[in-house]
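User: structure tokens for Peptidyl-arginine deiminase, please.
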Amino acid sequence: MITDQETNFVYFSELFKQRFEQEYSEITSILAKHRIGFDTLPETKDIWCRDYMPIQVSENKFIEYRYDPDYLQTKKYRKLKSYPGIISESIGLKPEKTDLIVDGGNIIKSKDCVILTDKVILENKDFYTKESLVEKVKELFEIEKIVLIPWDKKEPFGHADGMIRFINENKVLINGYFKEYSEKFQSYFFGELAKNGLEFTELKFDVKKPNEELNWGYINFLQAKNVIIIPQFGIDEDKQAFEQFEKFFPDYAKENRIEKVNAGKIIDGGGVLNCMTWNIKK
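Assistant: Done. Predicted tokens:
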């Protein structure tokens, strides 16, 4: 698998550029500073391009899954469904297609491992058993391990990128509030990590009034080869989040390659930086 650390090009929905001019300007200025290319995607219906764009397995292999999320099934939201085949064609990309139903925001990847919430089992229950689904994912993405973590029902989309990210091949970063969840959830969540040989560290905050509506969003950072961009929300946790990222990613920190951007308006839509970008290796 191509990891985030290997990517050198970032795409945004054209709609993001139109609707968030200041944020787009700030983010792309940071990318340019760190020699990361960028462009926009035409024909998109919403800004969250992570969810519908293909998964890059190798430099020339992309997998286009079935993007048909449950949260876009009603008449009100159906108009927000983007069609990845049309978008890919518009940028000259010819991905391989699969019948697997998933959202890109539910795929957290390292070189030989993918982490997803178990919502993917529910989405594909008419076509795959859990066992056959696991084998299908391994085959598609050419990986050795798949880690299925419990769906955090406080997050209606069922995406893993608001819960967990890779620090390196053997260690993940998680949102610390999972320690407050039920014993059953914790046993399942941490058991899956242990079973697959993954260590973890937590994002934790020591502030008088934690802002739980926003502070989950730091983990939805954007990582590329030369830079990590973390969101800021104008809350007490901002400074502590930045300091923790410097500790978690020392190779980036020592070369001043961890940057901040104001994402207070972006998060109002339910996602942050990872959600509204699609980064690849060119």
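User: Anything notable?

Assistant: The chain has one domain: 4-280.
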